[in-house]
Amino acid sequence: MTRAANAGELTKLRSHGQWARWHVIIDKPDVVYTCRSTGTLVLSSYYIPFDGASGTQTNVLKDMTVLVGSTSGGSERGITRVRIAPDGDDSDLHIGADPSFGNVQNDDYITVLNDFTPFAKPTSDVNVDFDTEYLDEFEDFVPVPVFGERVAVINAGEWVDFDASASWVPGSTISGYAWTFTGSLESTGDDTATPSAHYAVAGRYRVDLTVTAANGKSSVGYGWVYVLGDGLSPETGVIIEDLEGEYQVGWACKMIAYDRPTIKDRARVVLYSEDYFNNTAGSIGPVTDRENLLMVGWIIGETIIREPGQDYVEFTVGGPGIFCESVATMPAGLVDANYPEDDAANLPEWAKMSALTITKGLHYLINYRSTLAKVCDIYIEGFNVPAHKMVSDSESLWGQLTEYAGQGLMDVTSDRYGHIYIQRDIALMPVADRSAYPTVMTMTDADWTDELAIIRRQRGEAAMAEIEGLIYDAAAGVIIPVGGRAPGEMPSAHGDIVNISSISLISSAGVLQAAGLLMGKLNAEYESISGVHPANNHFIDVCPRQYVKFVIDGATVGAFPRRLTLRHDAESGAVALEFDCEGEGVQYSAVQIDYPDEENPPIEIPDTPPTPPPPPTDPPEEPPEASGADAVVVTGSDIRITANLNESSPTWTSIISGGPSAPLDSDMPETTNDILYVIEAESVWKCTGVTGTPSWSEVWDGASLGGGTIKELTRARVAPGSADLVYVLGYGEYGFVAGNNKPFVLRSSNGGLTWQESWIQDALPESKSYTVTHKTISKSMGVKSWPYWHYYGVEAMEFERIGDDEPGQVYNPIAVAYWAEEKIVDPSYDRASIRVEMDEDTGDCIIQDHSHTSVHNTTYGAGNYLIDWPGQTGRDALEDYFGAGSVSFWAGLNYYMPLDAGRVKFKYQGMSQINTPGLNITCTLDCWVFWNKPEIAKPTALDVARTNSNYVYVGTENKVWKSTDGGFTWAQSLAHGSNDIHVDPQLAGVYYHWAADGGLELVVNDAVSGADLDSETAAVVGLRLARDLNSGRLWALKGQTSLRVRNNAAWTDQDTGLSGARGLHCYLGGKLIYLDDSTILYSTDYGATQADKKGGWTGYGSPINAHLLRETA
Amino acid sequence: MSSSFKIAEYEDGVAALTALDELTTAVTPDPQFFFYTYASYVKLGNGTIRGVGPSATEWLFALLTLDQRNQLAEYCTAGSAQVYIATPDAEGTFTNYLATMSLPEEEPPIKGGLLRNYVIRFDFLEEQIEE
After folding, report:
1. A571 contacts on B by Cβ (under 8 Å)
2. Nearest chain A Cα distance for residue B110, angstroms
3. Percent of chain A scored above 90 by pLDDT?
4. Do B45 and A447 touch (CB under 8 A)?
5. N or C terminus of chain A: which is more exposed, having fewer CB within 10 Å?
6. Strand ranges, E, within chain B
7. What is the pTM of this model?
8. How far is A575 from chain B (nearest CA, A)?
């Protein structure tokens, strides 16, 4: 059962002082009947002859649990069930025909318990449950009782409600309910779906529900009410380990019980809790009257471990899923009676069913092949999908249910209360329908501890998802293959292909939808979101379908719980829910799979492969060449162009006149040879008529910066395929606060006429030159009774230095402040103080008690001491934060704290002298640490995606930032810096970059993919990347000393011994130009050989950039 | 005036709370006490702190005779037991609690027949509301 937690419940889940006492009831069923065997098991009819009976035989009901042992109440011979209820004077007990149960000896003790557990019902010959002959079970189906809840734990004197309105029957309707509340004081609504029962006396009580269907069939199920009191108490001496739940199998829990010689297989175990919120008792949960329930299950016999010589026993309690995984069963198969190929006419009646559907097949398993309907609430969705055949040879009861359900694309799962849900995974439900499922709660960072662990997919699980199955036309007795592929036909070279087949379907539209949803599930952005929720949370479960949503970085992400662990610290009582959720996906489009039929015969695969076609005689067409080898070279003091780069000593003509004087970077559009953009420290220049009559204009200057003060422009980039869309990268003092430098990006979409300015915010949002971390703690010191000095401590507060995970950013503590307040009646003697010391072992700076530094003079004595440190910067920060004039400084502590101290600890110790006994003291300590705001790392890299010019990447010395809206907004792409970025020519979300700390990395959707593409680990400054669009070769000017090319996943040094190399640019056809301090190097063979083309250019200056011009007319 | 610090066995109920200085062997003077509002704290994702677990309190007896120690230990014969106590809450108001009493795992050394700084801890404090 699930529902959204309401506002009041959410408040409790977010309250302090949550804890719980977990309790366990290991069921001890009362004995209904005992007798002694008078011989061995009679296998021909599976009964045990007996005598010496005690008890009323008519109280023995079908499916009650039977123990057989050599001692009274023993079970070492085995545990089975009553197969046929005795009629009152029987001397044979017919038991379940479990082939493993046969070792019954004369004079064994037979004990029939007032209990029912999940058993499989083996088949025999043509019958089910050994000898149950078919009558009309597949014509008029028996109803399936659903109690709402099968178990309740209440206190004596309380009422408990049930709701059987979800009881169901294939092909008919529920027409009547009859409840029996044995042991209750009174009850109401005994013939309705929603009765109530009142229990006055402690004990264990059975609840019987008989549901009747309109077809005249009826069936009975059993539930249990545990009434706490003098007659029934929770177990003592039991250690309850974590409760763990998984979507596929439900819940389980390990336990250790001391002094328990009688722990038995199949004993029902009920875990419940006394919960406290804000130290006030009261459980909350999704189900009325069952808020305290943690889990319902049974002891799994094979997990019981008794160590010799030890006084404890270990065992596992499994809910229906885990328990039924260990219930062995025999293969189960059903065929539609109208399906001709299996010769249904000759099949036994129990193996064929008219109008077979997935739901009817599951009904067969839970009623005739097991006792599940008697002991569990089972919910099956209305997927009345026709099936021509249902077969499962799984050896476990749960496996059979899973395989039958899977044929309808459904899962079998179980919640903590022991309900079984057979339903389609929420991830495979149509997106539009999901609003019907509750969001149990929306978590923010105030709900989980520390931080979430998020696995974000770097690429999808599958390139293509296939669903294949059959539509069964029962009237015609034919099956039609159908299938869907999402997002469409994809070759396996694109990635994995996930296929689910043998699904029964209603329509071809359904298969397309299912394939699209499966693709969405496999490619959801968030593979996993996990964390710890420190609360008594009984709301979140692995089923039925439900959402848990997470607010991550301002966005709300839908997710589905897949693995949960409820953890209880017995010493402190604290409870935490560990969750692992799967992110929600969308629905992809899908195409139908064409299957061969008579009109479209299958393709015959030849025995030998066909002869490959001859190789082409003509060489592939060369890309257009840059005619005349035109090039532009930009240096720190000149800009020149040549029209004869092919010659050994080209002529270089300066075009810088009237333009910039100290270029820092440049770029040219791919679409024209006649425009060149050049940046200086505080200017953007545009040159038109580059190959004709150059004309310069300063299209932006530093004074134009609106948000701050210009420091320097660093990179320029014209969007591929455009002449007018220009991005310029720079940095400046944002908000006009000295030292608060941030990068910004200028964007012009009209060739520099107008500019949009966008600042990239780093991790420190406030426009201050410092940042503050603050912690507070409050503690009652209790009543002091003596006229005596008291020293009392408050837990130490530790401030980890911020920003340590951000390369290039160094935060140092520049000031600390504290406010210590003691709430005490007599103010004249109380003291509060701190002092600063350095831990000589670790270098940590520790702030400890500083004796006698404080004076108190208020009604409620308060300390107000702010410590300057280590100079004016910290002083300014304190004044700015607390207000000028409101700060008193304590000098002389500077030397205690080294600037590179890794962290700051406060250890507060107050002391007081109280002259009046019986005064209570409460002290509160607030501590602040002021950190300098580091200089933002210099922006170093800029690139624009070829396939989507709104994708812009910026690298700085410590981060990579990404904008997907043309530079309006920015988000962090990588948490480490970059020397240069080159966006993949086909995928806007993929880029290569040379990390600031060394190594060429491939980044896919903001995550580094695989190992470095270059083994170099040392930092490389000034590296530039270029890529040939045709061949895919990637060049790097590594360390400004060598030209390397990456081709076929291998690197080759092509030109070494360079000095200060920059300005790498490549053109189609393997043409490459780059510069170093003294040469202009040009290659026409993909960098294999190169020649110096500096010619007669003297006074060359520092290299900046080089551009090969596109083919001129 | 008798002590406001009181104790009673679980079986006897909250009504049986007896002041420490009125026990068969009087325990005086009153102990110092420490009140812990929560058993522990966890740090949440937004940097705030959440107190988890129940309240606890400690009674610190600066000096205790062996007879006085034995008197108190009668309430906790198994090393840990549920008892009722009256002790100051976080605000210093004496409040009746059901609590799990634990004697120190290691007793302080006995000098001159006296135990110094003997600490009894009471966990899982549940306030008892008078009806």
Report:
1. 39
2. 23
3. 46
4. yes
5. C
6. 6-9, 18-19, 32-36, 40-43, 49-52, 56-65, 80-88, 94-102, 110-111, 114-127
7. 0.62
8. 8
